[in-house]
């Protein structure tokens, strides 16, 4: 008869949960199922920190006996309940946009300058390896793009990726490439990014080139008073590796504002692209935003722009001076 592991303590969202009754013959999957019963965070949404087997994160089928867990071992979990994800993915239309804006909270304004979070960025700069696909070009500004709901409807069902591609994607990237080097940053794994970019015909397009991809490993976790522990995309990781880019010449598109909480002035929340089969004919977001990118390309400092009002931006008209000799 298998022995019990003993009580395990899981810390999540500021609370501790005691997991009891697990056997040494149980697996990581069984542990996650037990955690789900107490937290309502689905097993596939759970990321457990502190579990290691020979230096590698454990497989879900590894038995708990091989982890040599002591009673009262404390594990930290990252994850979000489905209902919370739904609130982010499907915000009610009658709620003002500022509800999802981190920069309305004074205590959240300071998040981008917190020493512990800046230390995490420095660690990513040091440890995260970027595979250059196409060398950055001198003098080009930087455009960082999300994938899900920004370029692609990843929830709808289709036979080919092209059916779920956002309208005007290639036209948008072609225009942007004239002024910007383009980086794709998704909160998923690198294999998924490469698969989708290949399927959409982005990775080897003749009219533009992608500089490099960033995946979830380049992200950091931050704690906010309002949302608890969340993963975000700090552009400081890119700026630390490529000195030619900074907040002054970088812009990031993402459908979730909290992803750029560490660089709020640099982010533009794009309207989410969902239900591709119904919205393909009427979605013109990328077409409009390509014009915005073209218009601001001559700006010396993007930090002086308010990207929330991008659709009201008007390019500066240079005044003509008389060239006649007096």
Report the mean per-residue pLDDT as an integer: 84
The H-and-E topology, N to C, reads as: EEHEEHHHEHEHEEEHEEHH
Q: Tell me the name of the CATH homologous superfamily of the largest domain.
A: HAD superfamily/HAD-like
Structural class: alpha/beta
What proportion of the residues is helical, as a percent range?
A: 10-25%
The CATH topology name of the largest domain reads Rossmann fold
Unreliable segments of 5+ consecutive residues? 87-108, 320-326
**In what order do the strands lie side by side in the largest sheet?**
7-6-5-10-11
Q: Which CATH first-tier class of the largest domain would you pick?
A: Alpha Beta
**Largest β sheet strand count, sense and barrel closure:** 5 strands, parallel
Strand content: 15-25%
Radius of gyration: 23 Å
Alpha-carbon distance between the two ends? 103 Å
Would you count the extended β strands for me?
11
Architecture per CATH nomenclature, i.e. the level-2 architecture of the largest domain: 3-Layer(aba) Sandwich
Shape: elongated
Keywords: Hydrolase, Magnesium, Metal-binding, Nucleus, Protein phosphatase
Main location: nucleus
Domain FCP1 homology: 136-296
Catalytic activity: O-phospho-L-threonyl-[protein] + H2O = L-threonyl-[protein] + phosphate; O-phospho-L-seryl-[protein] + H2O = L-seryl-[protein] + phosphate
């Amino acid at each position: 008869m298998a022995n019990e592991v003993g009580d395990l303590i899981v810390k999540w969202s500021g609370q501790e949960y005691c997991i009891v009754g697990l056997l040494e013959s149980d697996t990581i999957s069984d542990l996650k199922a037990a955690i789900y019963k107490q937290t309502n965070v689905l097993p596939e949404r759970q990321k457990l920190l502190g579990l290691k087997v020979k230096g590698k994160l454990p497989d879900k089928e590894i038995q708990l006996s091989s982890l040599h867990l002591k009673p009262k071992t404390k594990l930290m979990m990252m994850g979000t309940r489905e209902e919370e994800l739904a609130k982010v993915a499907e915000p009610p239309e009658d709620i003002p946009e500022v509800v999802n804006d981190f920069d309305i909270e004074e205590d959240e304004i300071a998040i981008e300058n917190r020493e512990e979070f800046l230390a995490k960025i420095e660690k990513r700069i040091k440890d995260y390896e970027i595979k250059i696909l196409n060398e950055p070009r001198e003098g080009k500004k930087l455009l960082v793009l999300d994938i899900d709901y920004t370029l692609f409807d990843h929830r709808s069902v289709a036979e080919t990726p092209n059916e779920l591609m956002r309208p005007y994607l290639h036209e948008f990237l072609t225009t942007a490439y004239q002024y910007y080097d383009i980086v794709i940053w998704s909160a998923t794994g690198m294999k998924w990014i490469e698969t989708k970019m290949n399927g959409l015909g982005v990775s080897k397009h003749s009219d533009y080139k992608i500089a490099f991809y960033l995946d979830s490993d380049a992200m950091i976790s931050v704690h906010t008073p309002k949302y608890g522990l969340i993963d975000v995309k700090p552009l400081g990781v890119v700026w630390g590796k490529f000195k030619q880019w900074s907040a002054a010449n970088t812009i990031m598109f993402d459908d979730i504002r909290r992803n750029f909480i560490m660089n709020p002035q640099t982010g533009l929340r794009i309207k989410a692209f969902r239900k591709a089969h119904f919205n393909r004919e009427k979605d013109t977001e990328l077409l409009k935003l390509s014009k915005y990118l073209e218009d601001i390309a001559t700006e010396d400092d993007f930090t002086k722009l308010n990207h929330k009002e991008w659709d009201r931006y008007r390019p500066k008209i240079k005044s003509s001076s008389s060239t006649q000799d007096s």
